[in-house]
Amino acid sequence: MQQSSHNFEPLKGYENFEATTQIIIAEIQARQLPFEIIDSENNLLAVTFKNREYVIHEGTISDANSLISFWISNDKWMTKQFLKRKGVNFAKAVILGNMVELRSLSIPNYPLVVKPVDTDHGIGVSTSISNEEQLKVALERAFKYSKKVIIEEFFLGKEFRLLVVEGAVRAVAYREPANIVGDGISTLEQLINRKNVGRGDDYKFPLLKIKVDDEVTRHLNAQSLTIHSVVPSEEKIYLRKNSNLSTGGDSIDVTDTMPSFYKEVAVKAADAAGLKIAGVDMIISDLNIAPSQANYIVVELNAPPMLSMHNFPYIGKNRHVEKYVLDCILNS
Questions:
Q1: Which helix or strand (DSSP H or E) is residue 95 part of?
Q2: Where among 203, 232, 248 does a domain terminate?
Q3: For a tag on the chain, would you pick the N or C end, based on fewer CB atoms within 10 A?
Q4: What is the pLDDT of residue 3?
Q5: 3-class SS at 269?
Q6: Which residues pair with 302 in a beta bridge?
Q7: Rounded to an integer, what is the distance from CA 121 to the centroid of its chain?
Q8: SS (H, E, C) 129-171
Q9: For the chain, which ranges sit under pLDDT 70?
Q10: 211 is a domain residue
Q11: CATH number of the domain that 96 lies in?
Q12: Per-residue confidence (pLDDT) for residue 118, from 0 to 100
């Protein structure tokens, strides 16, 4: 089994900033550009280049992306409308504003995915919903985070994040859902605790800790497992379906092996919303078959993409994406 190459070290003096912001600050320092920290708690700074000041929030939010583009990408339902205009595939879905509306909607076939319309980092998302009872629980959970909720078809495959900067894909990461590998001795709880070493509780770190919540418990139960179970040596156990790094997922760099077809789709998806800097989440059903329109969907667009997953992946090499991102910001 391939060993992790993760080697993140916080930037000295800026350890309290999110990892993506730390990466941008390090690049600003490398270019010897004057900059000012405006609000450290909100990862807000200003950098001066050619006598002009550029404000940067959370490492990637700036004038490089327009307000309308940011708004489109922040609304998962709106994103689907703009992807449709450009002929980019996405999951069939319905949107509802309350539980009562469910009775009058023609929902996609099971299995399903439920997600709040405007959250990120996998917050409130439930996947692989296979019956009405699970759907009701998932909707109640999602409505805790948003006034509108999307129910969409579950598209089987692996999820990738493609970073698009000014019309070019600069990095691709396979986002593997939170998992552990058995050793035949340790319990799942012990393996989780072991894997969490070196991970963070927040975005000051590229990789976040695996936390056992209702969704993890549900997926373990579906496999007739609990956190006290011991699994055979070398057997990989997935703890949830969604692959967000915020829920303990792993980033594995696949930039060099991703077919150009899907890179072109990512560029088209970013352009659909007018984004110059975008993290395009894509599910590909099978990378071993010839690329085609039927083999993928774009899940969502991220106007403030996480850069640290590409520079400090769980497995793979540093793509130094901050160089392209800062160039884009300073030329906006």
A1: strand 93-96
A2: 248
A3: N
A4: 73
A5: helix
A6: 279
A7: 6
A8: ECCHHHHHHHHHHHCCCCCCEEEEECCCCEEEEEEEECCEEEE
A9: 1-2
A10: yes
A11: 3.30.1490.20
A12: 87
